[in-house]
TrEMBL record:
Its main location: periplasm. Residues 1-20 form the signal peptide. It is found in: Periplasm. GO terms for biological process: beta-glucan biosynthetic process. It comes from the Bacteria. GO terms for molecular function: carbohydrate binding; catalytic activity. Pfam families: MdoG. This is Glucans biosynthesis protein G. Belongs to the OpgD/OpgG family. Residues 25-489 form the Glucan biosynthesis periplasmic MdoG C-terminal domain. It comes from uncultured bacterium UPO54. The keyword Transmembrane helix does not apply.
Length: 494
């Protein structure tokens, strides 16, 4: 498991070990281009063929690259496959860096199986691709399977055998309306690995009205798919509030927020909570929400040890029978160096289906950049369904809430599990520490063993004396020592 010091050493060593880009192109080359591009007026991406706008994006995804046109041999360990242009995706350029130099792989309509997407051959005109997929041999049978996907303003990896789930965004800017405007990728350069190599380096350029960003990304397959990232940002005039290293997921409904958007379905989410590992070593868990209007919350955690969007509920019986959600991976981000003073910002927006990434979280530095200034930082991101990611010795697996009578009283049930709770002395029970924010009054609390989970359930009720959102926090302890992470939630106005 990587810690911050280990990540810093890894990023430094990879700069030399993966320097296959040669003398013609490296991260310094890309940073110089990004700096120059940010100094010029923003140029929006070209429009795609109007015919694409008439086709549902899900059908467009069926137009796959014909294998004979793949930029690298389909027998390669890593196989990149550019994705067909789409109406909702800024066109991107694709380059391959090989021993002979840089080779541009240009879009041509005949590269794709357009009839599968409902379009007649030869297909639409376009100036680029909608990103790319990256295939890698399965550890079980050697067949090629998805490892990574870069598309639009987002990118994601998988752990061994898992489907895609939560994503990382290139870089975000929070506008005056509280929306995250993520910079879309505009061009990629993939370094062709040597035979037998087990990691791949790529470079990427993202561009938006507010800024230009250069990326160096080293992809490492495994049980936890990992990306080691270096970023250089260059703002333009009028850049808003930066959201660094943003992660994004979908939460439509869950145990504590049932059935409002999709009343005939069970739980619908590819992540169900935000986990934060603070610089002081503490842990915090915030269940996610699908609010009726946009909401934003700040966590004052200078230089966090890590944070992530997790899918803790993996009980297949809680989802529709064919839903991928129980197998979708957690995504965990480890800052690579001192990010300085700032806060984690969680933004949630209304969503009606699982295709909407209505949850974003990222780091907002106190020191925002002025035009002409630059910023460089690094981090590592991991995707996994296995318990290989960092976590505390006691954690939350479920949150439920409801009315406690007809007088406006609220009731919550929070389930905790973990080795710290299993290790209690015989006959001992944990004690709850609960904080109800200003405008609320705790009325009842109880901690009971839960034989179904092997952990403990906290039950509590409180009265409201305010119509404002109410901050709630709770954890379990024994002998004045915390046993679990801190459960953190905002009870919305009723």
């Amino acid at each position: 498991m990587l810690n911050r010091r280990g990540l810093a050493l890894l990023l430094a060593s990879l700069s030399g070990a993966l320097g296959a880009a040669g003398k013609d192109f490296d991260f310094d080359t890309l940073k110089a281009r990004a700096r120059q591009q940010a100094a010029a007026a923003y140029s929006p991406p070209p429009q795609v063929d109007a015919a694409l706008a008439q086709i549902d994006p899900a059908r467009q995804a069926a137009a796959l690259l014909k294998p004979r046109y793949a930029p690298w041999s389909m027998a390669s360990r890593f196989v990149p496959l550019p994705l067909a242009p789409r109406a909702d995706c800024a066109p991107t350029l694709f380059n391959s860096i090989q021993a002979s130099g840089i080779e541009r792989f240009d879009y041509r309509p005949e590269l794709f199986d357009w009839p599968a997407a409902g379009l007649p051959a030869p297909g639409p005109a376009a100036t680029g691709f909608c990103g790319f997929r990256l295939l890698y041999p399965s550890p079980s049978d050697g067949e090629r399977e998805d490892l990574a996907q870069f598309q639009g303003d987002a990118w994601q990896l998988v752990g061994s055998g898992s489907p895609f789930g939560a994503a990382a965004l290139a870089v975000g800017v929070i506008d005056e309306d509280g929306r995250v405007q993520a910079a879309p990728f505009r061009e990629f350069w993939l370094v062709r690995p040597a035979a037998g190599a087990r990691q791949l380096r790529l470079y990427a350029l993202a561009d938006a009205p507010a800024l230009t960003a250069a990326f160096q990304v080293d992809l490492v397959p495994g049980v936890a798919g990992r990306a080691d990232v270096q970023v250089a940002l260059y703002p333009r005039d009028g850049a808003g509030k930066l959201l660094l290293a943003p992660l994004a997921g979908s939460f439509v409904q869950g145990e504590h927020r049932p059935g409002r958007a999709l009343p005939l379905q069970a739980e619908v989410h590819n992540v169900d909570g935000l986990a934060i590992h603070t610089a002081a070593g503490g842990w915090l868990w915030r269940p996610l929400d699908n609010p009726p209007q946009r909401s934003a919350y700040s966590f004052l955690v200078n230089t966090p040890r890590g944070f992530g969007l997790l899918q803790r509920d993996r009980d297949a019986g809680h989802y529709e029978p064919d839903a991928p959600h129980p197998r979708q991976p957690d995504v965990w981000l480890l800052p690579g160096a001192d990010w300085g003073a700032g806060q984690l910002r969680l933004l949630e927006a209304p969503a009606g289906n699982a295709d909407e990434r209505n949850v974003q979280v990222g780091f907002v530095p106190d020191q925002q950049l002025a035009p002409g200034a630059g910023m460089e930082f690094g981090y590592s991101v991991q995707w996994s369904t296995e318990p290989s990611l960092p976590r505390p010795d006691g954690w939350v697996i479920a949150t439920r809430s409801g009315a406690a009578g007809s007088d406006g009283r609220r009731r919550y049930a929070v389930d905790f599990v973990g080795p710290a709770l299993r290790g209690l002395p015989p006959g001992a029970a944990p004690v709850a520490v609960i904080d109800i924010g200003r405008g609320g009054g705790l009325q009842r609390q109880q901690v009971v063993a839960n034989p179904h989970t092997g952990g403990w359930r906290l039950l509590f009720e409180f009265d409201r004396a305010t119509d404002a959102p109410l901050q709630l926090r709770a954890y379990l302890q024994h002998a004045d020592q915390p046993l679990t992470e801190t459960w953190d939630y905002v009870d919305p106005p009723r």
